[in-house]
Design goal:
The structure holds two protein chains of two kinds. By secondary structure, chain A is of the alpha+beta class. Chain A has one domain: Orthogonal Bundle (Cytochrome p450), CATH 1.10.630. In chain A, the strands form four sheets. Chain A has a six-stranded mixed beta sheet with strand order 1-2-3-9-6-4. A three-stranded antiparallel beta sheet of chain A has the order 5-13-10. In chain A, strands 7-8 form a two-stranded antiparallel sheet. In chain A, a hairpin with a 2-residue loop joins strand 7 and strand 8. In chain A, 54% of the residues are buried. Chain B is α/β, with parallel strands linked by helices. Chain B folds into three domains: 94 residues, Beta Barrel (Elongation Factor Tu (Ef-tu), domain 3); 106 residues, Nucleotide-binding domain of ferredoxin-NADP reductase (FNR) module (Rossmann fold, 3-Layer(aba) Sandwich), CATH 3.40.50; 84 residues, Ubiquitin-like (UB roll), CATH 3.10.20. Chain B is 17% helix and 32% strand. In chain B, strand 2 and strand 3 form a beta hairpin. The longest helix of chain B has 13 residues. Chain B is elongated, with a radius of gyration of 21 Å. At the A-B interface, helix 3, helix 4, helix 13, strand 7 and helix 15 of A face strand 1 of B.
Chain lengths: 409, 330
């Protein structure tokens, strides 16, 4: 046998379907296999590349020059395929076109801009928790809290009318399914796409929105010329697409974490009760641990060298955010939800110029809900079997039955 | 072209984050009479913070003086910043220091980039530059060209030899009008700007009399048409400190000393006060902390000048202290 010194080692390959029901039910074994296989892996089923280690995922997220978003952040390559809806001006755009919409939305959703919402959201959370506890000490944490709270505060903050808000979750669910292949999940959503899209698009019009919400502020930016009037409704659409389901599943994740940790580490909930400022850390640790947004694609803008391999120009790369967030090369005891850990630096919100522009909104929602719950409840535990909801992009829950014990007021 | 994916490797116990607030001078070139460019890069070879045309950085010079300079390089090169610096005879230690003292290899502190002068979307742009005011407009014309916008640049200066970047502007042909005063007199703004129209944005940077003249000509144009950037005035804050400083945590009652090579975030974390952060570069805003007393040395890319002047919050992943002591609401 002869060997040449400069021969390229074989690219590790994996034939699993990351969007198949088995993986969506429990993605952890695939994540571990991909991380172990190497810094870059070929997913033969879709003929795309994959990054599952923290180092490569983080590096690709910040490297917008080498890994573009404008060719779509799903499996579909917009260079060759028609997108199912006009592309997002934020998620599916590169600099320089990405600059102005991002700048406007960053300001509208920035921590300083959210200060005026804080008191109201804390009060709303208390009211909701009171209402739920009034119905008994057993309830479904997904529908009663994780869905109910964002649906109560976020559409009001954007400024859309009451009517039709039940469309938000199915629309978001379909949008996040559409980043995957055209599988059964996409087919299930397809019959309602036209109707849901039409409803969402209609909510983005200026005269439909209240005059003091995020939506109105986006339109005001177009009055100043910071974005164009054609861009304004699409920026509002981004809020309605990406602002609801993600938060719902993030809140589900943190409630699930506390409920399951109760058996092994009941003191975590006690710590939160003693120190409510831990709510923010708890939420980010849950976002790390569960990674509500599991995956996004990028497209190589040129041949990119990754270790010993080259990802060719124009090819899609699937970034496993959830795998990176549990990479033992980066995190100690990564599979445990641990309030004493510093989750800073997780890639659950992405990183770089496309990092979740609504992350401060999500944290404020979580802080409000956890604070209200911790004030009234001194124990939270699972009350029955949990059920996942499958989505091509989201790590989601259908049902988390919990039992709580009321604490002293 | 082959691009190499390089990452910042770290662990939970020893998270490695690039020190984006200290850069090394890697190039210094005279590009016109009294104008030089500096290239800046990470001493550890890391990516620099992203920026867009119109952005500036705060450079903290080794003599302790802070000055703002527009970025005029290529944003597609994430490893290098370029700034242009005019020698100002009346300046107080900023430009004179850069021209006379600062050398390749020296370290400078960097805040930002921040952008008070962003290029907003438009089908047509008219750019008016006076002297060193060309620096923020240079990446703008590049970007306008890339986007296929209809644009023109009017560039005035005292003498041709004093006007920087004429070589780089040469490739744009007739879109660029170069007007040295000693050859052609003052800029003919009414002729260049023409009649008001709704689909144009006018960008201007240069000396105050030029901006005043542009404002006069554009007075009757639709609102928000004209966007200008004035040269930053003299720095009002005191010099930055290299020495350690104390941070008092008001809620916890603990006082922590922050050494020169440690961030406030890490120092308070070591004292057992966890503050959530994310980007560790002063970009995302996660670690915003309320300042109760003391003067922060802001190095983030988020707060504008007014918000900085208010002094009531800081991003402790990168920002430090100008005073001996900071009191934080932690």
């Amino acid at each position: 046998m002869t060997a040449t010194l400069n021969s390229t080692p074989t690219l590790p390959a994996n034939d699993a379907d990351p969007f198949g029901a088995e993986v969506l039910e429990d993605p952890l074994p695939l994540h571990a296999a991909l991380r172990e296989a190497g810094p870059v892996v070929h997913l033969t089923r879709y003929d795309v590349y994959a990054f599952a280690r923290y180092e490569q995922v983080h590096a690709a997220l910040v490297d917008w020059q080498g890994f573009q978003s404008a060719a779509g952040v799903g499996l579909s390559n917009f260079r060759y395929e028609e997108p199912w809806r006009p592309p997002s001006l934020l998620l599916e755009a590169d600099p320089p076109r990405h600059d102005a919409p991002r700048r406007v939305l960053s300001r509208v959703l920035g921590p300083r801009a959210l200060r005026r919402l804080r008191e109201g959201w804390l009060a709303d959370a208390e009211e909701l928790v009171e209402q739920v506890l009034g119905g008994g000490e057993e309830f479904d944490a997904v529908s009663a809290l994780a869905q109910a709270f964002p649906l109560r505060v976020f559409p009001d903050a954007v400024g859309i009318p009451q009517e039709g808000r039940e469309n938000l979750l199915p629309y978001g669910d379909h949008a996040f399914n559409a980043f995957g292949p055209s599988n059964d999940l996409v087919a299930e959503g397809a019959p309602r796409v036209a109707e849901l899209s039409a409803w969402v698009d209609a909510q983005c019009a200026r005269d439909v929105l209240t005059d003091d919400g995020f939506g109105a502020q986006i339109w005001a930016a177009s009055d100043r010329g910071d974005i164009t009037p054609e861009q304004a409704p699409l920026v509002v659409r981004s809020l309605l697409t990406a602002g609801v389901d993600t938060t719902v599943h993030g809140l589900s994740a943190v409630l699930y974490a506390f409920a399951t940790a109760a058996a092994a580490h009941p003191q975590q909930w006690d710590r939160l009760r003693e120190q409510p400022s831990l709510a923010r850390v708890a939420f980010d640790e849950a976002v790390r641990w569960e990674s509500p947004v599991q995956t996004f694609f990028r497209t190589a803008t040129c041949d990119v060298r990754v270790g010993e391999h080259v990802v060719p120009e124009g090819r899609k790369i699937l970034m496993f955010l959830g795998a990176a967030n549990r990479d033992p090369r980066r995190w100690a005891d990564p599979d445990s939800f641990d309030l004493s850990r510093d989750p800073s630096g997780h890639v659950g919100f992405g990183m770089g110029i496309h990092q979740c522009v609504g992350q401060h909104v999500a944290r404020l929602e979580a802080e409000a809900l956890l604070t209200a719950l911790a004030r009234r409840v001194d124990r939270i535990e699972l009350a029955g079997p949990t059920r996942r909801h499958h989505n091509n992009t989201l790590r989601a829950w259908e049902s988390i039955p919990v039992r709580v014990r009321l604490g002293r007021r | 072209m082959v691009h190499t994916l390089t990452g910042v490797v770290g662990t939970e116990a020893g998270a490695v984050s690039a020190d984006v607030a200290t850069l090394r001078v890697t190039g210094k070139r005279l590009v016109a009479e009294d104008v030089l460019t500096l290239d800046l890069a990470s001493p550890t070879g890391h990516r620099l913070r992203d920026w867009a045309p119109g952005a500036h950085v705060d450079l903290v010079l080794p003599n302790g003086v802070t000055r703002q300079y527009s970025l005029c390089g290529d944003r597609w090169d994430p490893f290098t910043y370029r700034v242009g610096v005019l020698r100002e005879p009346a300046g107080r230690g900023g430009s004179a220091y850069v021209h006379g003292e600062l050398d390749v290899g020296d370290l400078v502190g960097v805040g930002g980039p921040r952008n008070n002068f962003p290029l907003v979307p438009s089908e047509r742009y008219l750019f008016v530059a006076g002297g060193i005011g060309i620096t923020p407009l240079l990446p703008m014309v590049h970007q306008a060209d890339l986007l296929g916008a209809d644009w023109r640049l009017l560039y005035g200066g005292r003498r041709r030899a004093s006007m920087a970047f004429l070589d780089e502007l040469g490739r744009y042909g007739e879109r660029v009008q170069v007007v040295p005063q000693d050859e052609f007199g003052l800029l003919d703004l009414p002729a260049f700007l023409g009649a008001p129209r709704p689909d144009v944005k006018v960008y201007s940077c240069g000396p105050a009399p030029l901006l005043a003249a542009v404002e006069t000509v554009c007075a009757d144009w639709p609102p928000y048409t004209l966007r200008t950037e004035r040269f930053a005035g003299e720095e009002l804050t005191g010099p930055v400190r290299q020495a350690p400083f104390d941070v008092e945590l008001a809620r916890t009652g603990v006082t922590v000393t922050v050494p020169a090579d440690t961030t406030v975030l890490d120092a308070v974390g070591a004292a057992g006060v966890e503050v959530l952060s994310s980007c560790r570069q002063g970009i995302c805003g996660t670690c915003e902390t309320t300042v109760l007393a003391g003067e922060p040395d802001h190095r983030d890319a988020l707060l504008d000048d007014q918000e900085r002047a208010a002094g009531d919050c800081m991003f402790i992943c990168v920002s430090r202290a100008r005073s001996d002591r900071l009191v934080l609401d932690l």
